[in-house]
Amino acid sequence: MKTSYRAMQVSAPGTLELVERPVPQPGAGEVLIEVEACGVCGADAGDIERARPGANRVPGHEVVGRIAAMGPGVPAMWKLGQRVGVGRLGGHCNACVQCRRGQFQLCLDQPFVGSSCDGGYAEMMLARATALVSIPDELGSEEAAPLLCAGIATFNALRKCGAQAGDRVAVLGIGGLGHMALQYARRMGFEVVAIGRGADIADDALALGAHVYIDTRQEDATARLQTLGGAQAILSTIGDGAAVSALLPALAPQGRLVLLGAGKDPLAVTTGAMVSGERGILGSITGSPYECERALDFSVLVGARPRIETLPLEQAQAAYARLKSGAVKFRMVLTMG
User: Fold this and answer.
1) Which residues fall within 8 angstroms of residue 101, CB to CB, at 6 or more apart?
2) Residue 32 DSSP SS3
3) CATH assignment of the domain containing 80
4) Same domain membership, residue 178 and residue 80
5) What is the pLDDT of residues 238-247, one digit of tens each?
6) CB within 8 A of 77, min separation 6: which ones?
7) Are residues 199 and 176 in the same domain?
8) Which of 44, 214, 271, 337 is paired with 10 by a 20 to 30 Å CA distance?
9) DSSP characters over 205-267
10) % the chain with pLDDT above 70
11) What is the CATH number of the domain that holds 210?
């Protein structure tokens, strides 16, 4: 094994630099991953722009690679050379109250990859074995990477949304998350309504699985949804509280609003409408490694794939800038080459 590896670290808020680091040795319960691909997610922007000075953190939490070394105590199910992935959740502790309940995605002692521990904008990465996800052979590393965040997040949200096959489900925000939600929702048997900004995304939304596209620049999305009969579930992939709140009147009785996009803006909720219609609002985090594997397997089963653009590791700053510009359709992936 080589003695050093390349990584793109945050040298200052908003700035990535290419550095050479010594290859680390995995500790107890850890593996060393030789990274093949890492997605560039919208959440990376916060990690890059709000990084603690001097931390030299390596961002990236949609990581696919092969196990290059293992520390003591790693379960026998993991093998050298095996292709694995790591998402945003960096591995549960197996000791806290949430872990004892089996709610591993809510572990109280779990690092966030690329934020509180180094991520995958690098040729090598350490990871807890409890974070590992097995990657199906049918998926290339570049296309598997976004599924470890955008894929699992939307897959789990749809499974929690309470809608039945044939029900109407609306997806607000047709970007990195939304373009996977449309594919999954169509293949799960829902009537799918895509809600986005601008006519330029209409053809893509329909090709990805939407039955109807609503352009919020041209029409009132709430009124249109109400005309259609309301939505049994609305998946919001955006953090704009006002835009999300405006859609609540279009939620059908006993319908659910599922929040995926995290933002600081509060939601404006009319309690009477929520109570009288038994409507609900819930948040949904990504998911446990087991749930990630379910999402990957479902993607293989139904042919759902992210639409990606790729750039080599050393162009991570350019990839980040392109992500920020909104020009990516629909996920950017770094390759290690």
Assistant:
1) none
2) strand
3) 3.90.180.10
4) no
5) 989 999 999 9
6) none
7) yes
8) 337
9) HHHHT-SEEEETTTS-HHHHHHHHT-EEEEEE----HHHHHHHGGGEEEEEEEEE-S--SSPP
10) 100
11) 3.40.50.720
Report the half-sphere exposure of 310 (CA within 13 A, side-chain side).
14
Nearest of 114, 6, 11 to residue 55 by alpha carbon: 11
Q: What are phi and psi of 130, to 5 degrees?
A: -70, -10
Tell how far CA 121 is from the center of its chain: 16
Q: What angle do CA 157, 167, 290 make, to 5 degrees?
A: 25
Regarding whether 63 and 209 lie in a shared domain, the answer is: no
For the chain, the domain total comes to: 2
Taking the mean position of all CA atoms in its chain, how far away is CA 269? Answer: 26
Q: Which amino acid is at 211?
A: H
234 and 301 fall within a common domain? no
Alpha-carbon distances of 24 from 8, 68, 177, 193, 212, rounded to whole Å: 16, 11, 33, 47, 50
Per the DSSP assignment, residues forming a β-bridge with 199 are none
Q: Both 309 and 254 in a single domain?
A: no
CB contact at 8 A, 225 and 246 = no
Domain check: are 239 and 198 in the same one?
yes
Which two tokens mark 30?
């850890």
Gap between the terminal Cα atoms of the chain: 17
Q: Tell me the pLDDT tens digit for each residue of 137-181.
A: 999 999 999 999 999 999 999 999 999 999 999 999 999 999 999
Cα–Cα dist 258/81, whole Å: 38
**Tokens for 296?**
């990957």
- On whether both 165 and 274 belong to a single domain, the answer is yes
Query: Residue 308 belongs to what domain range?
Result: 4-149+287-335
CA-based nearest residue to 324, from 7, 6, 46: 46
Query: Which uninterrupted H or E stretch holds 154?
Result: helix 150-160
In the chain, how many H helices and how many E strands? 11, 15
**Helix, strand, coil percentages for the chain (3-state, nearest 5):** 30, 30, 40
- pLDDT at position 52 is 82
